[in-house]
């Protein structure tokens, strides 16, 4: 009888953790894993406060479906709110690139390359209000990512309807892979379409590129559409396949 009751309570806790919004305060960088404990594969909706380093990014990636070694995990983390966190340097490498033999570590107030690369469970993320930069390929191969949000207090980045931009260089950084809607019009103030900005966006049918765009960085549309439409005055990137 006691065993049956214990099993029922544990099952109920797992179900609650999966659907419930959990808030964790990481007062010491590198301790997220110990604070979450064995609940890490049950949490789908997580709010974090405090400071995060490389060890914490490893934990978040594991919770979002991918281990440090690149194998799938049982992680279910779909909604991640980092608005009240700060990214700090330190901790272990969260990613090893077998092609370049390079280790990737966290940087102060920056989401460094590959931070959330290949996180299949992730659907919505809210970035820190103190974040200053998002490097390339941070959200690449996130097939279910629908929204990237930025708090209004952030003066370096912005989000428009879930699409991520940097303010200083007027760059479109990332259009989420699972963004809803088949046609997208880039805002008129954008000058640069970033590296892999539209990569793996299989739901996308066409993109309207305004005259303001002067640079399209490498593989911006890889594994994506070939169709794009530009304003008549934009001679550098004429319309294709339309």
UniProtKB/TrEMBL annotation:
Keyword Ubl conjugation among record annotations: no
InterPro entries in the record: LRR_5 (IPR026906), LRR_dom_sf (IPR032675)
Signal peptide interval: 1-19
Claim: Signal is one of the keywords in the record: yes
Annotated keywords: Signal
One Pfam family here: LRR_5
Listed name of the protein: Leucine rich repeat (LRR) protein
Organism annotation: Prevotella pallens
